[in-house]
Amino acid sequence: METSLNNTTIFKNGLWDNNTALVQLLGLCPLLAVTGSMINGLGLGIATTFVLVGSNITVSLIRKHIPKEIRIPIFVMLIASFVTNVQLLMNAFTYELYLVLGIFIPLIVTNCAIIGRAEAFASKNKLLPSFVDGLGQGIGFTLVLMLLGGFREFVGQGTILDGAHLLFGEWARDLTIHFYITEQKFLLAVLPPGAFIGLGLLIAFKNKISH
Amino acid sequence: MANINDDNKTNSQSMKRSIISNGMILGLFALVSTGLIVVTHLLTKDKIAKEIELSLVRQLTQIVASENYNNEVYQDCIIVNDHDLLGSKDDQKVYRMRNNGSNFGLMITTVAPDGYSGKINIALAISNEGNILGANILSHQETPGLGDKIERSKSDWVNQFNGLSLKQLDKKKWQVKKDGGQFDGLTGATITPRAVVKAVYKTLQFVELRNKELFSQTSNCSLPKDSVSESSVSKDSISESSVSKGSRSGNSNNGN
After folding, report:
1. pLDDT at residue B229, as a whole number
2. In what helix (H) or strand (E) does residue A153 lie, and over which residues does it extend?
């Protein structure tokens, strides 16, 4: 059964109507753990999008050769092996980037959004729509991560884009915007409870706009 | 009767067949995906080990200005192990800095085993006379916003060790101010600075005890030749950018 959505709709679904974090509420474990700052959010977002696109493409390519009964364990193996390979390759060839993004990569395995997309979309669709779906869902997830990270960073320590040089290199040090200076960080926002509260606010806000 | 039996038989036979074929497919996928990981692992193993080593050396060279020594520090290194004074059962590394053959100082890796959330890995540069040239936190899992101020990129807390030695400072003074010593603590984090100060003190003791031996022992853990030429080229360009990157690797793990 092939769903016949056009690519724009699929992409928009990922960004808004069926957003991973705000609507499906998937991938919350890594989301809550790393959104202490906007740049951390962006880092996890990039890594997740990469794996999501890769696993969607792979699953879509082999979807006709997988018996229905054992598709889930096969997806799990595919994704785990994909993530591990990406981690090893990054560690070996882009070591500096790995030091920054590396901690996020194992978190992706715990992200049920990936297997969710493999099962709900890629296993039923052709290559191109699966690719678009992976990209849309990934970018939608990244945006939520950045918003939540930015919110917590702003409330917690009065900055936005702190640590941008870790991702973009030395020139990005100047990107950091200081709104106010605090001696003591606002810990409720910095530590995990802040993520729950922030996510709750974001979801409420999205529902308000949608309805 | 005979009919039902036949049905059952074909049913269980087709069931058996599908179990076997599914099992085979599953096994095949397991083999392929594990095989892929094995291949990638074998291909990248050496490269990764080299990168880790290089980044450690980079971290170490950052804390001492490179004019002070002119030997290839990368190739002048020994392995030491002292559970009591260096805080870990694992091997630690000592890089020797020499200037035209005379001993300038050591760069030693050490561990504070009693951080607030686990081990804190530290690199310490100590001059031949026993003065601290500089300290760097290599990795840790302390609380973001509180204990993580020990990182050079977050605050200059770690600089207060510079220039100190065992001779200059009484044993009692090697503690945080709260405990009667001379080192600043960190607001909201008591355990972290305590652990680091203690580890630095013990490492100084270790170096004092074995100073001669540390300098004279034959180098036995140097990097392979080919990577050294690479690293000496890039030595200056990376020294600045990698300051915070390395120490960051442990920190964001919090909250998992």
Report:
1. 39
2. helix A127-157
Token couple for A61: 């390519």
Q: Name the minimum distance, in Å, from the CA of B119 to any CA of chain A.
A: 17
pLDDT score of B232: 39
Q: Are B200 and B130 in contact (CB under 8 A)?
A: no
Task: In whole angstroms, give the CA distance from residue A150 to residue B147.
Answer: 22
| Cβ–Cβ under 8 Å, residues A113 and A27 | yes
Pairing mode, strands B118-127 and A159-160: unpaired
Please write the tens of the pLDDT for every residue from B87-99: 888 888 888 888 8
Contacts of A28 in chain B (CB under 8 A): none
Question: Which of these ranges, A55-69, B44-58, B74-88, B165-179, has the smallest mean pLDDT?
Answer: B44-58
The verdict on A191 touching B (C-beta cutoff 8 Å) is yes
Cα separation, A204 vs A210, whole angstroms: 10
B125: left (phi over 0), alpha (psi -120 to 50) or beta: beta
For B248, the closest of A70, A100, A192 (CB atoms) is: A100
If pLDDT is split at 50, 70 and 90, which confidence band does A158 have?
Answer: confident
Tokens of B179: 């405990």
Written as six digits, the tokens of A26 are 């998937």
Instruction: Indicate yes or no: pTM above 0.80.
Output: no
| Domains of chain B, residue spans | 54-251
